[in-house]
UniProtKB/TrEMBL annotation:
GO molecular function: 5-formyltetrahydrofolate cyclo-ligase activity; ATP binding; metal ion binding
Binding site for substrate: 53, 58
Organism: Neorhizobium lilium
Protein name: 5-formyltetrahydrofolate cyclo-ligase
Family to which this protein belongs: Belongs to the 5-formyltetrahydrofolate cyclo-ligase family.
């Protein structure tokens, strides 16, 4: 089995487990994630933090994002431009959200495009080393690479439920490890990147 096939199998398996979580349990776990995130994340006022608006059975980050905004963060969320590219548009209170690809919603084209300093990254699978599997489109990998090409090194924090962890994620040379993961059990660091 190739690495790509292994990743596809792990993605399918872990997303099925996540999908099976009852909605009430997902809400409770999302609130725990918000609480742990507030305890763990330290940043300066004006720091640009990318979150995401939930689709399907993802963690609902909106409670955490609202509290980060109240603490002075400048929020943005990913918007898919085409089959290769996402940008991060500023999410301001009261702004209209427009429908996008894959049943997503996000700020419209008039919203400012920002470069995140902290990225709260959705994923399907992660392991104890900080390796992750996304949803298969490579959008975040390319977005992170573009930021690196600009000389930017955002802190990468995976957002998931505990049930999405596996013993080992097969990694490839282009894969970028997470600095930390945030689940309902708490915040776990993988690297030595300092808080912003």
């Amino acid at each position: 089995m190739t690495i790509a096939e292994q990743k596809t199998a792990l993605r399918k398996e872990r997303l099925a487990v996540r999908d099976a979580l009852p909605p009430v349990e997902r809400i409770e776990k999302s609130l725990s994630i918000a609480s742990h995130g507030l305890d763990a994340l330290s940043f300066q006022t004006g720091t640009v933090i990318s979150g995401f608006l939930p689709i399907r059975s993802e963690v609902d980050l909106r409670p955490l994002m609202a509290q980060l905004r109240d603490m002075g963060a400048r929020l943005c969320v990913p918007v898919i431009l085409d089959k290769q590219t996402i940008v991060f548009r500023e999410l301001v209170r009261g702004a209209e959200l427009v429908p996008g690809t894959f049943d997503t919603f996000g700020p419209g084209p008039d919203a400012a495009e920002l470069d995140p300093q902290i990225m709260l990254v959705p994923l399907s699978v992660f392991d104890a080393r900080g390796d992750r599997i996304g949803y298969g489109g490579g959008y975040y990998d390319r977005a992170i690479d573009r930021l690196h090409q600009k000389g930017l090194r955002p802190a990468l924090i995976g957002i998931a439920f505990d049930c999405q962890e596996v013993a080992s994620v097969p990694d490839e040379p282009h894969d970028v490890r997470l600095d930390a993961v945030l689940t309902e059990s708490g915040y776990r660091r993988f690297g030595g990147k300092p808080s912003l």
